[in-house]
């Protein structure tokens, strides 16, 4: 179960960030922010090859004792960052990938909405409900 | 209070309202009675009303003086337009529409704060509260047609009996000022009413009345006569719509829209229409939407690109967030463009929102495009009606239609993910319930109706097997599981026979049901790796056209090993070619035999479908969920048909006996079932299938015992019944065998999966390295 989900725009400002309410949200915001460095590092390292060859799923960005942070970047340099609880050992890589896939799909739906201006905060209810489902259920 | 500047129209309107409320002519209106009624009719939340009263100073004074009243009315208009309530907003808000009040006669009236009504309505429909001015009848006295409806108008000042008269009594100038008022804000749009082809949203306060007296507005109510240049949202949302009026108003060039919304005519119409479905689009509304669509995109089958739609809907002055949500709801296939249906749904939602309805979280069913058919979206709207056909007694079909849209929803998502080539994941094949398929389904259903006079019967069969089939199909309908082998397998057990029913009606199988050029009933495939490849083979064979299906059907039966009843041996061979001809031939026989004949067709055709089902089940599991839908859909009419057909005990029992015979039949076919049984015990998940199967067999065995006594009835009917029984038994035998084989394959696949998962687990520790 993800405790925090964030969508970061290309310019590294958040389009959407949501944390499980029980936690100290600021801490998660900080973790996401620090993870951006790792994301950039991974992108640049892999980006030597053609962009097409770059895998969208970045995998575990960095672990802390309590949490693990996963990253995913789209071809338009929009980053998804997900923080999961380390205690949830049942969470497999595939599941994380599928969660990112869902995120990506929902994000695409949001982008398809002509009333959404890229760069705006994401306020789509459908996106919200999808993220809620990811955060609530045990993935 | 600061000075309040009112336009002429407002002045007149307010003075009328004041005199209406000021029954005692004391120039002061106590905050009770009429005033409260008036404010309640404004359809504002209570706190807003209180705020208004506070702002205008009435609470301070304890009563509404004329100025307070005017201020209050202005604030009502402000609130109704969605602007925040501030004291300064009274004068600063430009283009403020006149406040609307709705008679609170009944709930419906209040809901539809329809501001206008076409002339015919207007002419008299003053819903109670509003004094004549709004009602302009301006002119068309002719539109008295709604007079009978008038009685509702309670206004003392109005004369319900002669609505024609009241308009005359109303200050004659107000309509004019009204129009002027409307024209003012329109500013550049003044020519609008008549000119302007393109759609354009009149700013909220404007009614485009294509020549009609612009009345106000008030957020989108009845669109002016269906001229191309309309716009203002005018529909009273859900149920009946003002559009019904419009045809009448077309002739009236000077339609005057009553602010008194909810014209009684409207209300009555509303009541008569299906009120229980608030999101239904009436024909007139739909016509209007289609016209608007045409102005953007002349091709009705084409798409409106997102940018054009954005401009169009932005004119409605709804907040972007809401428009965004409406778009999310209505763009069903998430392609960034609106088809005609999506556009109508979106438009309808906008209209509803303008009228004060909250946007739903999910698209209401009546607004959903039932079929995602990229070829022909224009007819999609008709499909829902057809989908909900009356002929199907089983619960499955109704449950199917809600499931279809939901399944449709999953498909677009899946497809979308496939667009991104970098995302690596299995993309299920999109088996859209295409129109073709739906048409076939409908044909089948209608065919069943024609051929079987008893089809509408909702026979509550005591046959557990049938119920279980229906239940399982319903279960599947509700679940959108993707590639869940278990769920699909659940439906499989029920599908064969349901599909068999389906086929009985039509020779042509739905395009999605795979063709049965399958090799002879799939022999058990013990090798774990074999099942997948075999399914792939099946896929290839499925690519064959339906034309070969019958040949395959014919080819299939001969491969069946000896039957339990040797007497039936010649029967099936003879039968199948006949069966291949479809139900039609059977039903061409005498009506007396109809009850039995459908049975013939049914069960003998089971094999056809059984074969087709075999092939289907062998397909890749990932596709199962998608395919089961067409299968399920095919099965639903089939099941309904079966249910309908089993109106006679005999038929029931023959149906029941069929699976029982199958069970008997399996024993001679020793090899396949044995491994199946072994595996069955080991697999928990498959137990339900086993139970189902055993249940059927148990029931059938019991029924079989009683069966022999039945055919003792008289004459050739008996023989016909016996023949049908034989055929049914044969069919059942084959089906049961197929079923067991399929189950075995399923188990193979499951074992593979388990082994793969184990491997994955082992490899996982190394994944992060």
TrEMBL record, chain A:
Keywords from the UniProt entry: Cytoplasm, Endoplasmic reticulum, ER-Golgi transport, Golgi apparatus, Transport
Location of this chain's protein in the cell: Cytoplasm, Perinuclear region; Endoplasmic reticulum; Golgi apparatus
A biological process term (GO) from this entry: endoplasmic reticulum to Golgi vesicle-mediated transport
Record InterPro entries: Longin-like_dom_sf (IPR011012), Sedlin (IPR006722), TRAPPC2L (IPR044760)
The UniProt record lists the keyword Hydrolase: no
One of the record's GO cellular component terms: perinuclear region of cytoplasm
Main location as per UniProt: cytoplasm
A Pfam entry, by short name: Sedlin_N
Family: Belongs to the TRAPP small subunits family. Sedlin subfamily.
Name of the molecule in the record: Trafficking protein particle complex subunit 2-like protein
Originating species: Lynx canadensis
Automatic annotation (TrEMBL), chain B:
Region listing for Disordered, in residue ranges: 105-236, 377-412, 443-467, 479-598, 611-699
Native source organism of the sequence: Acinonyx jubatus (Cheetah)
Protein's recorded name: RalBP1-associated Eps domain-containing protein 1 isoform X5
Domain EH: 10-113, 285-369
Coiled-coil ranges per UniProt: 728-759
PANTHER family the record matches: EH DOMAIN, RALBP1-ASSOCIATED EPS DOMAIN-CONTAINING PROTEIN 1
Annotated signal sequence range: none
Compositionally biased residues, Basic and acidic residues: 644-654, 681-695
Lineage, opening ranks: Eukaryota, Metazoa, Chordata, Craniata, Vertebrata
């Amino acid at each position: 179960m993800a405790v925090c989900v964030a969508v970061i725009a290309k310019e590294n400002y958040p389009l959407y960030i949501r944390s499980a309410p029980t936690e100290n949200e600021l801490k998660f915001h900080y973790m996401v922010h620090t993870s951006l460095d790792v994301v950039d590092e991974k992108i640049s390292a892999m980006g030597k090859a053609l962009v097409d060859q770059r895998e969208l799923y970045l995998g575990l960005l960095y672990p802390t004792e309590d949490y693990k942070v996963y990253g995913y970047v789209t071809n338009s340099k929009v980053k998804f960052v997900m923080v999961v609880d380390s205690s949830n050992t049942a969470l497999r890589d595939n599941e994380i990938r599928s969660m990112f896939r869902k995120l990506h799909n929902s994000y695409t739906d949001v982008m398809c909405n002509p009333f959404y201006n890229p760069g705006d905060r994401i306020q789509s209810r459908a996106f919200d409900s999808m993220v809620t489902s990811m955060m609530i259920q045990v993935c | 209070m600061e000075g309040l500047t009112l336009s002429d129209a407002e002045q007149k309107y307010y003075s009328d309202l004041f005199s209406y409320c000021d029954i005692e002519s004391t120039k002061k209106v106590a905050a009770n009675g009429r005033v409260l009624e008036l404010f309640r009719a404004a359809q504002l939340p209570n706190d807003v009303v209180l705020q208004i009263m506070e702002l205008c100073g009435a609470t301070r004074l304890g009563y509404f003086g004329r100025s307070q009243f005017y201020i209050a009315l202005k604030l009502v208009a402000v609130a109704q337009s969605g602007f925040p309530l501030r004291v300064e907003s009274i004068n600063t808000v430009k283009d403020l529409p006149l406040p609307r009040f709705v008679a609170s006669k009944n709930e419906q009236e209040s809901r539809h704060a329809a501001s206008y009504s076409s002339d015919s309505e207007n002419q008299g429909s003053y819903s109670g509260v509003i004094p004549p001015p709004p009602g302009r009848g301006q002119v068309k006295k002719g539109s008295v047609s709604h007079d009978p409806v008038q009685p509702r108008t309670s206004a003392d000042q109005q004369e319900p009996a002669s609505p024609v008269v009241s308009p005359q009594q109303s200050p004659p100038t107000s309509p004019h000022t009204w129009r002027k008022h409307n024209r003012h804000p329109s500013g550049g749009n003044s020519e609008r009413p008549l000119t302007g082809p393109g759609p354009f949203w009149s700013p909220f306060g404007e009614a485009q009345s294509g020549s009609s007296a612009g009345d106000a507005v008030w957020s989108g109510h009845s669109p002016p006569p269906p001229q191309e240049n309309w716009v203002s949202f005018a529909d009273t949302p859900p149920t009946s719509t003002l559009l019904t009026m419009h045809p009448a108003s077309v002739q009236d060039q000077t339609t005057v829209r009553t602010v008194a919304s909810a014209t009684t005519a409207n209300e009555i119409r509303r009541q008569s229409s299906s009120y229980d479905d608030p999101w239904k689009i009436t024909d007139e509304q739909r016509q209007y939407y289609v016209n608007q669509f045409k102005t953007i995109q002349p091709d009705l089958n084409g798409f409106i690109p997102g940018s054009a739609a954005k401009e169009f809907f932005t004119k409605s002055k709804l907040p972007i967030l809401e428009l965004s949500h409406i778009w999310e709801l209505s763009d069903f296939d998430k392609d960034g463009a609106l088809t005609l249906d999506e556009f109508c749904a979106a438009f309808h939602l906008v209209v509803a929102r303008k009228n004060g309805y909250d946007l739903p979280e999910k698209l209401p069913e009546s607004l959903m495009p039932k079929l995602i058919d990229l070829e022909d979206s224009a007819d999609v709207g008709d499909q829902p009606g057809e989908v909900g056909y009356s002929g199907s007694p089983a619960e499955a079909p109704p449950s199917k239609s809600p499931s279809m849209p939901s399944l449709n929803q999953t498909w677009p998502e899946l497809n979308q993910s496939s667009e991104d080539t970098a995302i690596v994941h299995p993309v299920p094949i999109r088996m859209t319930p295409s129109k073709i398929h739906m048409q076939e389904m409908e044909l089948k259903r209608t065919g069943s109706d024609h051929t079987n006079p008893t089809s509408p019967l909702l026979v509550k069969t005591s046959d557990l097997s049938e119920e279980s089939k229906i239940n399982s199909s319903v279960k599947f309908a509700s679940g959108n599981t993707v590639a869940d082998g278990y769920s699909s397998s659940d439906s499989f057990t029920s599908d064969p026979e349901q599909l068999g029913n389906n086929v009985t009606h039509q020779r042509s199988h739905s395009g999605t049901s795979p063709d049965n050029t399958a090799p002879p009933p799939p022999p058990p495939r013990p090798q774990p790796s074999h099942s997948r490849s075999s399914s792939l083979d099946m896929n290839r064979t499925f690519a064959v056209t339906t034309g070969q299906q019958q040949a395959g059907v014919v080819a299939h039966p001969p491969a069946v090993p000896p039957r339990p009843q040797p007497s039936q041996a010649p029967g099936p061979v003879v039968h199948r070619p006949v069966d291949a001809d479809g139900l039609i031939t059977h039903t061409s026989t005498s009506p007396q035999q109809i009850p039995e004949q459908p049975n013939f067709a049914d069960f003998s055709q089971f094999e056809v479908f059984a074969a087709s089902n075999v092939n289907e089940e062998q397909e890749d599991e990932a596709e199962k969920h998608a395919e089961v839908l067409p299968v399920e859909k095919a099965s639903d009419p089939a099941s309904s048909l079966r249910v309908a057909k089993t109106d006679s005990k005999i038929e029931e029992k023959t149906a029941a006996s069929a699976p029982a015979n199958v069970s008997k039949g399996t024993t001679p076919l020793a090899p396949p079932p044995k491994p199946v049984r072994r595996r069955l015990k080991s697999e928990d998940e498959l137990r339900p299938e086993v139970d189902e199967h055993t249940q059927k067999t148990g029931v059938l065995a019991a029924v079989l015992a009683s069966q022999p006594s039945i055919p003792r009835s008289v004459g050739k009917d008996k023989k016909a019944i016996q023949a049908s029984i034989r055929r049914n038994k044969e069919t059942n035998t084959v089906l049961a065998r197929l079923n067991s084989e399929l189950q075995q394959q399923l188990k193979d696949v499951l074992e593979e999966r388990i082994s793969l998962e184990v491997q994955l687990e082992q490899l996982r520790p190394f994944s992060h390295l």
